[in-house]
Amino acid sequence: MNTHTYTKKDVVKLTAQRLNRKVSATEKIVDEVFVTLREMLCEDRKTLRIEIRNFGVFEVKQTKAKPKARNPRTNEIVYVPPRKKTHFKPGKLIKAALKK
Question: Residues 47, 61: contact at Cβ < 8 Å?
Answer without folding.
Answer: yes
